[in-house]
Amino acid sequence: MAEPTFRIVEVIYEGMTQLDFTAPHTVFSRIPNSETIVASKSGGAVTSDGGLTFAGTRAMADIDRCDLLFFPGGLAATEVINDAAFMTEAKRLASGARYLTSVCTGSLILAATSALKGRRAACHWAWRDMLTLFGAIPDPARVARDGDIITGGGVTAGIDFALTVAAELAGDDFAQALQLNLEYAPSPPFNAGRPEIAPPEILARVRKNMEGIMPKRLAQAQAAAARLSAPPLGELSRSD
Amino acid sequence: MAEPTFRIVEVIYEGMTQLDFTAPHTVFSRIPNSETIVASKSGGAVTSDGGLTFAGTRAMADIDRCDLLFFPGGLAATEVINDAAFMTEAKRLASGARYLTSVCTGSLILAATSALKGRRAACHWAWRDMLTLFGAIPDPARVARDGDIITGGGVTAGIDFALTVAAELAGDDFAQALQLNLEYAPSPPFNAGRPEIAPPEILARVRKNMEGIMPKRLAQAQAAAARLSAPPLGELSRSD
Questions:
Q1: Is the dihedral angle over the CA atoms B164, B170, B176, B179 positive or is it negative?
Q2: How far apart are CA B25 and CA B208, in angstroms?
Q3: Are A125 and A73 in contact (CB under 8 A)?
């Protein structure tokens, strides 16, 4: 009997950062002997940041299981972790997956499934500390691996992350051939991609731009974390 | 009177390599005082490599003009340059644009509009030589600039390319802040991203995989180039 196809499920949502998703998808969709399914809460069309609409996604509830689960990040990540229907399906898919993966603030979604308790995970530099709300250990690495949990840092870390996953699933030679096909020999025109190396005035500018959005996002993460650490409703109401 | 919005038109097509498009789109869609329009030959939904479907694109013919024209690459690039209706609109938009840009084999499309005669352009390493069919000068740079023609190399060069364009349009500070937001401090897990640095056996493997597809693609490029250098039909049939 043929080995069942390795199933990768990428869960996207309104307001995700599309490059968090599209860069890994470029890699995942080329991994041999695997199928890649793009899923969303309700199926159908999903619009990302930058106004791109991805048509034809499958409803999470219609997917019985997966081998690798992937969440991209985005400003809306702290919203979906407060969406009970989304999180029910996210937890179900996570519980059956061998590999749990994410890019950027997608690790906050993984964390909100409770899968990251006591585990190391990467995240976008500006959001990384929120992982502690869920008992996860923020890892400043561009790609963090803790057992079969593989996570990438902010947005463009998705390429390094996905090639790491490709090597795990299909071998180093395959990953290197893919890197050559994608001509991935990066040469950024500036040296400003991390807070530690960015010019101080650039970092200050970015932090200032984020000031307006962070309090609401932090409150959303705290709300999701509080729900996670509270005992399940069933236990609270049990009278026997 | 307010300055008119700077208009960026990204032309996509069936079978494009979606990361050629989605990485630059992430950057372009954040450039201040600009609008980004995703266009295609007939408008509507367009499916890329890897099975992603982008909904809601606008028909090229419905766009009167643009300031920056952008073509991503893909295996189908050598097909669209033989599509008369596509190329009529591509030439019209190119003729009015200030900036002509591309990533990967998108430069073959630019070249087929005749805009690259005697001009330097980048392209995916395996396809770069085809530029000479159109009188263009292949440039091995990751991002090549020749006047207001700005082109990127293969696939992932699109990030370096787009940040270069962002710096041109909105300044170095803006481009650096965006780089920090996108956490673009690349750290590839392997060192195989260009033929010059890839392990020889990896390069041989990739070249072997391409053997099957290249003759047809080269013939398509030659056909388009022959049409470009032939005198227009009007001149041939003129009897007066």
A1: negative
A2: 32
A3: no
Longest dimension (CA), chain A: 66
Residue among A173, A182, A197 minimizing CB distance to B185: A197
Considering only CB atoms, which chain A residues are within 8 Å of B153? 183
pLDDT digit string (tens) for B142-199? Answer: 999 999 999 999 999 999 999 999 999 999 999 999 999 999 999 999 999 999 999 9
**Which residue has 């022959």 as its token pair?**
B226
DSSP string computed for A76-112:
THHHHTT-HHHHHHHHHHHHH-SEEEEETTHHHHHHH
Q: What is the DSSP letter of B3?
A: P
- The answer to whether A218 and A226 have CB atoms below 8 angstroms apart is no
Instruction: Round to whole Å and give the CA distance between A47 and B120.
Output: 37
**Angle at CA A143, nearest 5°, toward A141 and A148?**
120
Q: Does A209 sit within 8 Å of B180, measured CB to CB?
A: no
Tokens of B40: 């295609």
Written as six digits, the tokens of A79 are: 């919203």
> The tokens of A107 are what?
């690790």
Give dist(CA A49, CA A14) in Å, integer.
8
Please, which residues have CB within 8 angstroms of residue B205's CB and are 6 or more apart in sequence? A173, A177
> Is 0.90 exceeded by the ipTM?
yes
- The pair of structure tokens assigned to B6 is 């700077």
Name the pTM for this structure: 0.94
Residues of chain A with C-beta less than 8 angstroms from the C-beta of B199: 176
Q: What is the pLDDT of residues A84-95, one digit of tens each?
A: 999 999 999 999
Q: What angle do CA B222, B91, B156 make, to 5 degrees?
A: 70
